[in-house]
Each structure stands twice: as structure tokens, then as C-alpha cells.
Amino acid sequence: MTLSLFDGLTALLLVILAWRCLVVPDLFRGIVLFVVFGLLLALTWARLDAPDLALAEAAIGAGILGVLLLGTWRALGSPRSGETPASSLSRWLQIASGLGSALLAGLVAWALHLVPGSEGGAGTLAVEELPLPATGQPVTAVLLDFRSYDTLLETAVLLMAVVGSWLARSSLLDAIAGNDATTDTPVVPALVRLFAPVLLVVGAYLVWAGAHSPGGAFQGGAVLAAAGVLMALGRVLGTAPNVGWLLRLLMVLGLLVFISAGLLLMPTEGSFMAYPERWAGLIMHLVEYALALSIALSLLLLFTGAPGLRRLG
Amino acid sequence: MTEMLPVLAVFLPMLGGVLVFLLGCGPRNAWSVLTVMLSLTPSLLLVQQVAAVGTVEHHLGGWAPPLGIRLMADGLSALMILLTAVVGGLVSMHALGHFAERANAARNFWVLWPLLWGSLNALFLSADLFNAYVTLELVTLAAIPLVLLAGSAQAVNAALRYLILALFGSMLYLAGVALVYGLIGTLDMQLAAERLSGAGWVLDLAAALMVTGLLVKAAIVPFHLWLPDAHGGAPAPVSALLSALVVKAAVYLLLRLWSGPLFEPLSQPAAAWLLAGLGVAAILYGSVQALRQRRLKLVVAYSTVAQLGYMLLLFPMAGLLAWQGVIYHGVAHGVAKAALFLAAGNILYQLGHDRIVDMRGSGSVLAISFGCFALAGVSIMGLPPSGGFLAKWLLLQGSLQAGAWWLALVILAGGLLAAGYVFRVLRAAFQVPDPDAEEKLPEVRHIGAMMRWPMLLLALTAIGLGFAGEPLLTLLGDVPGRLG
Fold first, then answer.
1. Inter-chain contact B205–A256, Cβ cutoff 8 Å?
2. Is the torsion defined by CA of B182, B184, B186, B192 positive or negative?
3. For residue B247, what pLDDT is reported?
4. Mean pLDDT, chain B, whole residue set
5. Quick one: A204 and A181 in the same domain?
6. Are B3 and A125 in contact (CB < 8 Å)?
7. Residue B3: which pLDDT band, with cuts at 50, 70 and 90?
8. Residue B128: its pLDDT value, please?
9. Same domain, residue pair A155 and A279
10. Contact (Cβ atoms closer than 8 angstroms) between residue B342 and residue B237
11. In a domain, A6, yes or no
12. Is the distance from CB of B106 to CB of B90 less than 8 angstroms?
């Protein structure tokens, strides 16, 4: 790939956006800039031939994260715009840390320019070994086969994050009040009813597509969560103060299925997460769907803030 | 069965956490107790296995490195898993009593702590640079919500500060790992140790990034800012787990990298002395701060800042004695610090406050709690016949052997300062009340056996470690990697 004008412009814009995002005095504008930054970063990943990362960045980095930040901003009681948040750092410290970061970034960039890359390394091996694993897509093969252990452990993070967010909220507020959305126009609920089913289908497709093309549990889960967020905004889903057992089960379903598949087959296969050739494809699809459901629910609960969910109608 | 033990040591505790998440603590805490059993059994069996046959390995998914991930339990891993089992088991018992009146907090504790237990075991078993990053993240992200169990706005502040600094540390570590992967195309620690030589300044930069990231997570001065509030503000069992195990996990990884892939960059004299210098600064600064604190739990928290510094003195000494001394110090400090935090927590519970000035005369009423504080303090000071003494003795010998006599002076000075902050608390507690003032002995709340026994057992273990050097150091074995 040759360095084109487009790539140069994207790189420059990324730096400018990141800088503006940090220094802009208005919090709301900072959040919007952050979302734009995420989308541009997704575009950059796509240019670098990494469509999986692009999807993940767009869905999680720009989408879900943006929604969470906006939700937090609203909960702060929307400070008067133009108000500068008091910074605890002195001007000189800010300049020094900025220069230090720039220097470090420069050093790392130079180092990355010098390193030989992973020619002949694990990455090349993974692509060569591809016919063997049940999934035909290199990224999914790494995530769910070669290094499935890492993926499994990361799944546990979601559970910790949700419990942590409940604890933080209950420490700060007397009663856990969720973000039951209010809209002042009837258009939103109508649009939600139109778009939510489409999003659900797209999310499910992304999970399914992960086996042979870019996508997978994380990207699909994020899109499913986005559908949930829309439904919450459109007053189809509301919050509840308590978590039902079904919701709890769905939240840990990915973790449970993933661990069980590994542990139950260990005696016959000899090692953890080694699946028999015949069933490997089926098991991985099961794990992907269970993971996507748990990821989607956990992300949605991080947004709504209250432990439980209920149908509003 | 043998090969499965490492996997079981990671996932049985986690399944326990999921079980409690689904079903709650159960009638009479049945599920919590089951979870502790599920966590203890594979850990202890694995330690026994390593002691019997040596290193145990497991290739996950049947894929050998560099493609797959390897779990490895050698002497060092086994020792840390044993420490986690002993401290974790006893602190779990204390937690059953501590959270008895707070059902909601209890449930969340019994979700998070088993997840943390599994994550710690995963970290100690990791033989892969990226997997180590994942486990380090897991440990941090399970530890931070535990701080929130204190349920106050200050705890949220402390936890957020912890979170921000810890994420900064992870980012640095990950950047270093990316550079290493770019250099040699593998993440396996063993393969990396073989292939990473003569890589020049890029490897130095990678090492600097990874080590700085770990220092932030280990709260080494000047990155200690998050520790005192988080460890001092959390509920007592949580403080004990964080101080005894969680920060040590980051130091463990640093030692693991030193003995493996990062041996070359970290054994350059400049790097070794820079790290040791940070260790010295941590010992002196942490001890002086501990002397100045007004609240008991903060004294104990700052003592952690100081005690972690000893573990960095290894780098310039770089010999077998220093290696044994540093690891033994980690173990001895883990047990003693857990005892100190449980004692401090019990004192706080019994008196309703932990202001040292207002403790006057409470020593006679709270004899057991203060007695345990004193016993564990003996190990922290490094007086015989405790585990702390054995560790410092090995370290002193190591420093003299390496010709670093002034490190020996720092070790001795650190012991004196520790005696200062331990005796300051005891002096306040056992000061005879003025007979003329007609001060009544303070009203105290009663603590049950569940909160008393773990503290006592941990304090006794801290002393007993002074006699357990032989079997434990045999289990540890030689310095792995190029020095060995």
C-alpha cells in the first residue's frame, strides 16, 4: 500500500481531533469530538486492511463508548455550556506532560519503523495453519482457537465491570435510579420501532459472519447492545431495581458456555479448549452466540445503569 | 489429571464466582464456602505436584507456542499460588464474619473475590507476554470494584484514581509487548528469552515501557499515589487481599520478566541501579509516611509502599541469595500484611474508629487484636524468629556477597523505621491511662470467632515462616533463566 494523500490527511486529522478532544473547554463538544475521532480511527483501520478492528472500533469505540459518555454527561446535570472544568494541573505541568507524551510517541513510532515486523512469527504461522481450525477466518481463528484462552479471560472482565458499575452507583446515590429515557417527540419511539429490529438482525448476522468473514461476538454483541440502547431510548425497555435470575444467567452465559466447553472436553482431548475436529465448528458457533448475548446485555446494563431491565410495551 | 491442575486452578475459582452471581451466597453461606473449597483444592494439589515432580506445563487448545499459549507452574509460580491459597483461604474466613451483616456487599464480595483469585492464579501461571497483560488487567479490574465495597463516596474517588493510574500502567506494558512482538514475532516468554538478544535500543525502550507499566501497578514510589487511599479505605478483608496479593502480582511479573525475556536490558548496571534506587526511595519514603499517619489503616497501607521497595533491591545483587531473599520477602510480607490489615480492621470494628491518638489504653481490652498486630509487626520489622527476619537475612547476605554494602545499610534502616511505626501504634495502645483523669476504658464491640481466628492464624504463620525456610526455598528452586 502506498502512502497516499488520503492517508496523510487521515493521520493529520486524527492527531488534530485527538488534540482538540483534550483541550476543548466544553465537555459536550469534547464527547462529540471523541466520537468523530473513533469513527475516523475505524476508517484508518479499514485502510490498514484490518476490517475486524475497524468494525470493533466503530461499534464499541465510537458507538457504545460515545453513548456511555453522553449518558454520563447528562447525569452530570448538563453544566452550562462554555464553562471550563477546573483543571487541577498547572499550565506548566500540562505543557510538560504534553511534550513528554509527544516525545514518547515519537520514540515508539521510530522503534516501530525499525522493527522487522512479524515475518515468520506467530502471525504468519496462524495464517498458514488456517485450513486446520474449524473457522476459516484468521482473526476468529486466533480469538477462538489459537489464543481462545485470552478471549475467555477477557469475557470475565465484563462481569467485573458490570458489578463494579453497580457498586460505584450505589455508593454515590441513595437509591439506584436508572436512565429511564424521556423524549419530547413522538418521532423517536416510532423510529426506534422501525430501526431496532434491523439492528438486531445486523448484530446477529455479524456474529454468524465471524466464522468466515470480518465480524464476531464482540462486534455483533456491540451492535446488539446498540439495538438495546435504542429500545431503551424509545421507551420499549425500561429499568428495574432488581436483577432477575434470567438476566443474571444471560449475563454469564458466554463465560459459562466457554468454560464448560473447555473443561468438559478436557478429559477426552487432553488439553483445555481443544475441541474434537467434528464438533469444533458447532462448539465455536455456540460459544460465539453465547458470548455475543452476554456482551450485548452487559454493555446495555452499563448504559441503563440500573441492575435490571423490564419491558415497557 | 496432573496436566489439568493449572487450568482448574484458574477456572474453578471463577466458576465459584459465577455460581454466587447466579444463586447468591446460599443458606448459611453454603455457596461461598463451596467456592473457597473449589479454589483451594486445585491450588494446593498443584503446589504439591510441583513440589513432587517439578515444573508442570499445559499447552492450551493443544497448540504449542508460538501459535498457542502455554501455562507453566514452576517453583516460583507454585510459591505464589501457595501464598494466595493460604492468605486467600484465611481472609475468606474473616470475610464470612466481616460481611455477615451486609448481605448485598457479601454477595458482591463473593462474586468478585473468587474471580480475583482465579485471575491471580492465571497471572502466576502465565508464560506468555500478552496473556500476562490480560491476566494483569483481570487482577486490576477485579480488585478495583472490591475497593468500592466500602460503599462511600471517598471509596469511589480512591477507586477511580486507582483505575486511571492502573489503566495508564497497562497501556505502557502493552506498548512494550507490541514492540517485543514486532522484534521477534513471538509472545511466549521462553522463546522470547532465547530470541531477544542484541536487539539494541528498541528492546531497551520496550523494557522501559513494560517495567514502568508494572511499577505503576505495583505502586512503587513515585507511582504509589493511588495505593494509600485505596488500601486504607477498603473493607479490611479487601485491604488484606490487595496489599498481600494484588500489588505483589505486578512485582512477581517484573521478577519473571527479569529472569526471562528482559534479562539483558534489565541487567545493565544503569537499569539495575535505577530500579534499586526506586526501591530504596520506596523503603525510606513509605516508612517515614507510615510514621506520620494518624489513622491505623493508613499506617499499614504506607507500610506496604515501603515493604514493596525491598523487592526491587534484587536487580543490582542478581545472585541466588538475593533471589531467594526477595521472593521470601514477598511471601513473608504477604502473610504479615494480611494479618496486620485484619488486626487493624478488627480494631476499627471494635473501637468504631482507627485514630491512633484515641487508642490510649485500649490495648488491655483489645489484647488479642493488638497482640496479633505486634506479632505480624515482628515479621515486618524483620526480627527473629519471623519470616521477615529470614528474608532480610538472605537479602543482607546477598548484598554483602554482591559488594553492595550500602544496600545492606538501607535494609537495616528500613527495619528500624518499621520498628518505629509498629511501636508507635503499640505504645499508644498500651499506654497506661492516667489514673487521675478517671478515664473509663473504651466501650468495645465484640468480634466473633470468624473474625478473630484468621487474624491469629495469619499472625502465627508470619512468625512460623521463620522456620519454614527449608521446604519453601527448596520448592522455589534455583534462579530460572540465564543466571541459573
1. no
2. negative
3. 96
4. 93
5. yes
6. no
7. confident
8. 95
9. yes
10. yes
11. yes
12. no
Which chain B residue is nearest to residue A259, measuring alpha carbons?
B11
In a domain, A107, yes or no: yes
Do residues A128 and A210 both lie within one domain?
A: yes
Contacts 24+ apart (CB under 8 A), B160-166: B161/B225, B161/B226, B161/B229, B161/B230, B162/B226, B162/B230, B165/B216, B165/B223, B165/B225, B165/B226, B166/B140, B166/B216, B166/B217, B166/B226
Shortest Cα distance, chain B CAs vs residue A123, angstroms: 7
Q: In terms of CA atoms, which chain B residue is nearest residue A144?
A: B61
pLDDT digits (tens, 9 = 90+) for A64-110: 899 889 888 887 775 554 455 555 668 888 889 889 999 999 999 99
Q: Give pTM, 2 decimals.
A: 0.95
pLDDT single digits (tens) B130-141: 999 999 999 999
Percentage of the residues of chain B whose pLDDT score is greater than 70: 97
The three-state secondary structure class of A70 is helix
Secondary structure string (H, E, C) spanning chain B: CHHHHHHHHHHHHHHHHHHHHHHCCCHHHHHHHHHHHHHHHHHHHHHHHHHHHCCEEEEHHHCCCCCCCEEEECHHHHHHHHHHHHHHHHHHHHHHHHCCCCHHHHHHHHHHHHHHHHHHHHHHHECEHHHHHHHHHHHHHHHHHHHHCCCCHHHHHHHHHHHHHHHHHHHHHHHHHHHHHHHHCCCEHHHHHHHCCCCCHHHHHHHHHHHHHHHHHCCCCCCCCCHHHHHHHCCHHHHHHHHHHHHHHHHHHHHHHHCCCCHHHHCCHHHHHHHHHHHHHHHHHHHHHHHHCCEHHHHHHHHHHHHHHHHHHHHHHCCHHHHHHHHHHHHHHHHHHHHHHHHHHHHHHHHCCCECHHHCCCCCCCHHHHHHHHHHHHHHHCCCCCHHHHHHHHHHHHHHHCCCHHHHHHHHHHHHHHHHHHHHHHHHHHCCCCCCCCCCCCCCCCCCHHHHHHHHHHHHHHHHHHHCHHHHHHHHCCCCHHHC
Angle, helices A280-304 vs A217-233, to 10°: value is 30
**Residues in A touching B22 (Cβ below 8 Å):** 245, 248-249, 252
> Is A80 inside a domain boundary?
no
Q: Give the structural domain span for A260.
A: 121-313
Question: Is residue B403's pLDDT more than 80?
Answer: yes
Residue A66 shares a structural domain with residue A97: no
pLDDT one-digit tens code per residue, A151-208: 999 999 989 999 999 898 888 775 545 555 566 677 778 888 888 899 999 999 998 8
Q: Is the same domain home to A50 and A131?
A: no
More confident residue, A9 or A132: A9
Q: Chain B closest CA to A184's CA: distance in Å?
A: 33
Q: Which residues of B touch A146 (CB under 8 A)?
A: 61, 63, 67-68
A142–chain B nearest CA distance, Å: 9
- Give the total number of structural domains in chain A: 3
